[in-house]
Amino acid sequence: xxEVTQIPAALSVPEGENLVLNCSFTDSAIYNLQWFxxxxxxxxxxxxxxxxxxxxxxxxRLNASLDKSSGRSTLYIAASQPGDxxxxxxxxxxxxxxxxxxxxxxxxxxx
Amino acid sequence: xxxxxxxxxHLVMGMTNKKSLKCEQHLGHNAxxxxxxxxxxxxxxxxxxxxxxxxxxxxxxxxxxPECPNSSHLFLHLHTLQPEDSALYLCAxxxxxxxxxxxxxxxxxxxxx
Lengths: 111, 113
Known about the structure:
The structure holds two protein chains of two kinds. By secondary structure, chain A is mainly β.
Protein backbone atom coordinates (compact mmCIF):
# COMPACT_ATOMS: atom_id res chain seq x y z
CA UNK A 1 0.00 0.00 0.00
CA UNK A 2 1.36 3.40 -1.02
CA GLU A 3 2.31 5.73 1.83
CA VAL A 4 3.27 9.38 1.45
CA THR A 5 5.25 11.25 4.09
CA GLN A 6 5.86 14.97 4.25
CA ILE A 7 8.59 16.62 6.26
CA PRO A 8 8.48 18.94 8.10
CA ALA A 9 4.92 18.87 9.44
CA ALA A 10 5.15 22.59 10.14
CA LEU A 11 7.53 25.36 9.18
CA SER A 12 7.74 29.04 10.06
CA VAL A 13 10.23 31.31 8.30
CA PRO A 14 10.73 35.05 7.80
CA GLU A 15 9.56 36.65 4.60
CA GLY A 16 12.06 36.58 1.74
CA GLU A 17 13.69 33.25 2.57
CA ASN A 18 13.99 30.38 0.14
CA LEU A 19 12.62 27.11 1.49
CA VAL A 20 12.26 23.46 0.63
CA LEU A 21 9.40 21.12 1.46
CA ASN A 22 9.98 17.39 1.28
CA CYS A 23 7.80 14.51 0.21
CA SER A 24 8.61 10.80 0.10
CA PHE A 25 6.59 7.84 -1.10
CA THR A 26 7.04 4.11 -0.58
CA ASP A 27 6.01 2.69 -3.97
CA SER A 28 7.91 4.11 -6.92
CA ALA A 29 5.40 2.75 -9.46
CA ILE A 30 3.55 6.05 -9.89
CA TYR A 31 2.01 7.82 -12.86
CA ASN A 32 2.58 11.30 -11.53
CA LEU A 33 3.07 13.45 -8.45
CA GLN A 34 1.13 16.58 -7.67
CA TRP A 35 1.72 19.43 -5.22
CA PHE A 36 -1.27 21.33 -3.86
CA UNK A 37 -1.83 24.17 -1.46
CA UNK A 38 -4.78 24.31 0.89
CA UNK A 39 -5.90 27.51 2.57
CA UNK A 40 -8.01 27.39 5.76
CA UNK A 41 -11.62 26.52 5.04
CA UNK A 42 -10.96 26.09 1.35
CA UNK A 43 -10.36 23.30 -1.10
CA UNK A 44 -7.11 22.37 -2.75
CA UNK A 45 -5.35 24.39 -5.43
CA UNK A 46 -3.07 22.47 -7.76
CA UNK A 47 0.40 23.99 -7.95
CA UNK A 48 2.48 21.63 -10.04
CA UNK A 49 2.06 18.22 -11.67
CA UNK A 50 5.11 16.12 -12.52
CA UNK A 51 4.63 13.11 -14.76
CA UNK A 52 6.64 10.00 -13.91
CA UNK A 53 8.91 10.58 -16.93
CA UNK A 54 9.78 14.12 -15.85
CA UNK A 55 12.39 15.33 -13.37
CA UNK A 56 11.00 18.75 -12.50
CA UNK A 57 8.39 21.38 -13.14
CA UNK A 58 8.50 25.12 -12.58
CA UNK A 59 5.80 27.73 -12.10
CA UNK A 60 6.86 31.23 -11.10
CA ARG A 61 8.67 31.06 -7.76
CA LEU A 62 7.86 27.37 -7.36
CA ASN A 63 9.99 24.48 -8.52
CA ALA A 64 9.15 20.85 -7.90
CA SER A 65 11.52 17.97 -8.50
CA LEU A 66 10.89 14.25 -8.72
CA ASP A 67 13.27 11.36 -8.16
CA LYS A 68 11.03 8.40 -8.77
CA SER A 69 13.62 5.72 -8.14
CA SER A 70 14.32 6.99 -4.65
CA GLY A 71 10.70 7.88 -3.95
CA ARG A 72 11.30 11.56 -3.27
CA SER A 73 10.04 14.95 -4.34
CA THR A 74 10.84 18.44 -3.19
CA LEU A 75 8.96 21.71 -3.55
CA TYR A 76 11.24 24.72 -3.62
CA ILE A 77 9.72 28.13 -2.90
CA ALA A 78 11.90 31.12 -3.75
CA ALA A 79 11.68 34.50 -2.07
CA SER A 80 8.80 33.50 0.19
CA GLN A 81 5.93 35.94 0.82
CA PRO A 82 3.25 36.10 3.53
CA GLY A 83 0.70 35.07 0.88
CA ASP A 84 2.52 31.74 0.58
CA UNK A 85 1.27 30.80 4.06
CA UNK A 86 -0.87 27.68 3.67
CA UNK A 87 -0.75 23.93 4.02
CA UNK A 88 1.16 22.25 1.20
CA UNK A 89 0.10 18.76 0.22
CA UNK A 90 1.97 16.20 -1.85
CA UNK A 91 0.01 13.48 -3.63
CA UNK A 92 0.97 10.60 -5.90
CA UNK A 93 -1.09 8.78 -8.47
CA UNK A 94 -0.34 5.07 -8.72
CA UNK A 95 -2.29 2.24 -10.24
CA UNK A 96 -5.53 3.36 -8.68
CA UNK A 97 -7.47 6.27 -10.06
CA UNK A 98 -7.35 8.46 -7.05
CA UNK A 99 -4.49 10.23 -5.38
CA UNK A 100 -2.64 9.15 -2.23
CA UNK A 101 -1.88 12.17 -0.08
CA UNK A 102 0.60 13.06 2.62
CA UNK A 103 -0.51 14.82 5.78
CA UNK A 104 0.92 18.11 4.54
CA UNK A 105 3.35 20.78 5.66
CA UNK A 106 1.80 23.75 7.44
CA UNK A 107 3.80 26.77 6.30
CA UNK A 108 3.81 30.20 7.94
CA UNK A 109 5.70 33.09 6.38
CA UNK A 110 6.33 35.83 8.92
CA UNK A 111 6.02 39.40 7.56
CA UNK B 1 -12.33 29.84 -9.32
CA UNK B 2 -11.61 26.16 -9.83
CA UNK B 3 -14.77 25.37 -11.74
CA UNK B 4 -15.80 22.83 -9.12
CA UNK B 5 -18.53 23.87 -6.70
CA UNK B 6 -19.87 22.09 -3.65
CA UNK B 7 -23.01 22.62 -1.58
CA UNK B 8 -23.62 23.00 1.22
CA UNK B 9 -20.36 24.43 2.52
CA HIS B 10 -21.24 23.52 6.10
CA LEU B 11 -23.58 20.85 7.45
CA VAL B 12 -24.54 19.75 10.94
CA MET B 13 -26.58 16.59 11.23
CA GLY B 14 -27.72 14.11 13.82
CA MET B 15 -26.92 10.43 13.60
CA THR B 16 -30.44 9.58 12.45
CA ASN B 17 -30.66 12.22 9.74
CA LYS B 18 -30.41 11.74 5.98
CA LYS B 19 -28.64 14.41 3.96
CA SER B 20 -26.89 14.78 0.63
CA LEU B 21 -23.78 16.59 -0.49
CA LYS B 22 -23.69 17.99 -4.00
CA CYS B 23 -20.78 18.60 -6.33
CA GLU B 24 -20.91 20.24 -9.74
CA GLN B 25 -18.07 20.75 -12.18
CA HIS B 26 -18.15 23.26 -15.03
CA LEU B 27 -14.96 22.06 -16.71
CA GLY B 28 -16.28 19.46 -19.10
CA HIS B 29 -14.42 16.69 -17.27
CA ASN B 30 -15.27 13.01 -17.47
CA ALA B 31 -14.05 11.80 -14.08
CA UNK B 32 -15.18 12.86 -10.61
CA UNK B 33 -14.00 11.90 -7.13
CA UNK B 34 -15.03 12.09 -3.48
CA UNK B 35 -12.32 12.49 -0.83
CA UNK B 36 -12.55 12.68 2.96
CA UNK B 37 -10.22 14.86 5.04
CA UNK B 38 -10.29 14.10 8.75
CA UNK B 39 -8.34 15.99 11.38
CA UNK B 40 -4.70 14.88 11.54
CA UNK B 41 -5.14 12.29 8.79
CA UNK B 42 -4.24 12.47 5.11
CA UNK B 43 -6.91 13.02 2.52
CA UNK B 44 -8.52 9.67 1.70
CA UNK B 45 -10.07 8.68 -1.59
CA UNK B 46 -13.65 7.43 -1.19
CA UNK B 47 -15.15 7.00 -4.66
CA UNK B 48 -14.23 7.46 -8.32
CA UNK B 49 -16.66 7.90 -11.19
CA UNK B 50 -15.71 7.88 -14.83
CA UNK B 51 -18.29 8.71 -17.48
CA UNK B 52 -20.98 8.36 -14.81
CA UNK B 53 -19.88 4.83 -13.90
CA UNK B 54 -18.41 4.01 -10.49
CA UNK B 55 -14.94 2.58 -11.01
CA UNK B 56 -13.59 2.53 -7.48
CA UNK B 57 -14.93 2.20 -3.97
CA UNK B 58 -12.27 2.30 -1.30
CA UNK B 59 -13.99 0.12 1.30
CA UNK B 60 -16.27 2.94 2.30
CA UNK B 61 -19.11 2.07 4.74
CA UNK B 62 -22.52 1.70 3.15
CA UNK B 63 -23.84 4.67 5.14
CA UNK B 64 -22.12 6.71 2.38
CA UNK B 65 -23.86 6.28 -0.96
CA PRO B 66 -22.59 8.10 -4.07
CA GLU B 67 -24.61 8.98 -7.13
CA CYS B 68 -23.49 10.37 -10.47
CA PRO B 69 -26.52 11.20 -12.65
CA ASN B 70 -24.41 12.85 -15.37
CA SER B 71 -20.81 13.82 -15.98
CA SER B 72 -21.24 17.25 -14.40
CA HIS B 73 -22.88 16.27 -11.11
CA LEU B 74 -21.87 14.06 -8.23
CA PHE B 75 -23.76 13.45 -5.01
CA LEU B 76 -22.88 11.83 -1.72
CA HIS B 77 -25.93 10.61 0.16
CA LEU B 78 -25.48 10.30 3.91
CA HIS B 79 -27.57 8.30 6.36
CA THR B 80 -27.13 7.09 9.95
CA LEU B 81 -23.67 8.60 10.20
CA GLN B 82 -21.40 8.36 13.23
CA PRO B 83 -19.59 11.21 15.00
CA GLU B 84 -16.28 9.92 13.60
CA ASP B 85 -17.62 10.71 10.12
CA SER B 86 -17.25 14.40 10.91
CA ALA B 87 -14.73 15.72 8.38
CA LEU B 88 -14.21 17.90 5.34
CA TYR B 89 -15.59 16.17 2.24
CA LEU B 90 -13.90 17.24 -0.96
CA CYS B 91 -15.03 16.69 -4.51
CA ALA B 92 -12.59 16.72 -7.43
CA UNK B 93 -12.71 16.24 -11.18
CA UNK B 94 -10.26 15.53 -13.97
CA UNK B 95 -10.46 15.36 -17.74
CA UNK B 96 -10.05 11.60 -17.72
CA UNK B 97 -9.00 9.03 -15.16
CA UNK B 98 -5.34 8.66 -15.95
CA UNK B 99 -2.43 11.06 -15.60
CA UNK B 100 -4.53 14.19 -15.36
CA UNK B 101 -4.51 17.08 -12.93
CA UNK B 102 -7.35 16.86 -10.46
CA UNK B 103 -9.25 20.04 -9.65
CA UNK B 104 -10.86 20.32 -6.25
CA UNK B 105 -13.94 22.04 -4.92
CA UNK B 106 -13.97 24.02 -1.65
CA UNK B 107 -15.38 21.14 0.34
CA UNK B 108 -18.30 20.56 2.69
CA UNK B 109 -17.47 20.75 6.39
CA UNK B 110 -19.64 18.07 8.05
CA UNK B 111 -20.29 17.75 11.76
CA UNK B 112 -22.20 14.73 13.01
CA UNK B 113 -23.68 15.08 16.49
